[in-house]
Amino acid sequence: MNFYKSLLLALLLTSSQLTAYAAGPKLSASEAFEKKDDGTFLKKHEAILARGKSGPVGLLFLGDSITERWKIAPHIWDAYYGKYQPANFGIGGDRTQNVIWRIEHGELDGISPKVTVLMLGTNNSLDYTAEEIAAADRKIVDMIRAKLPQTKILLLGVFPRGPRDPKGAPVTEAGVAEAAKRMQTIDAVNQDLAKLDDGKTIRFLNINHVFLGQDGRIPNTIMPDQLHPGAAGYQLWADAMQPTLEGMLK
Q: Which tens digits make up the pLDDT trace of 51-86?
């Protein structure tokens, strides 16, 4: 692009549009992407690979920080899942693209869980449409089935989230509006994903109602930061999922 075309472009576009133009096309929600951080992502990926090689995996949890943070409730994890040789393949901050990359780089190789529990998409919910997120989750389901043809998949609806400031500051009107936008997307994603339930090898389960109070909001006792369950939230998750999971594990 020559100088005059660049000048014309700058005059025609707003600053935010110009930034997006300079950054190039947005990464597809269904495209594999290695997270670029301080090295934490790759260290966790290596730890997951090591877990897969260290012994049998009978029950696999795959997802983002909501899955990874089962570690804050080890007593619940052990009581409900300990007998199934469980493995937690959750990594904080992951989007659909990161999990696709992880699967492409060996995380499902050499294991044979009876059931894989998948819940993913909340970190995509601001920047992507429901159709894009659901398509990425469907791709991940297809990847699991290709890698683990004998494994049943329990696909959970993306959990609800409320207004929040990631740094703990007071929630602003903009934060309330963002949460509403995200929930509109999440609800649409879950409606789409429900269509994958075949009653046999893939089951869809939406347990979002258990996290809500009578006013329709998420109590702080359940999700202290309006995104990640606390211990009480993980207890609700385990109780709500157990009947379906037990049936799939038989």
A: 999 999 999 999 999 999 999 999 999 999 999 999
**Strands (DSSP E) found in the chain:** 59-63, 86-90, 115-119, 152-156, 202-205
Q: Residue 68 sits in a domain of what CATH number?
A: 3.40.50.1110
Quick one: tokens of 138? 């469907």
The reply to whether 201 falls in a domain is yes
Q: Is residue 19 part of a domain?
A: no
- The reported pTM is 0.90
CA angle (158, 160, 166) in 5-degree steps: 105
> What is the tens place of the pLDDT at every residue in 141-175?
999 999 999 999 999 999 999 999 888 889 999 99
Q: Residue 168's domain spans which residues?
A: 40-249
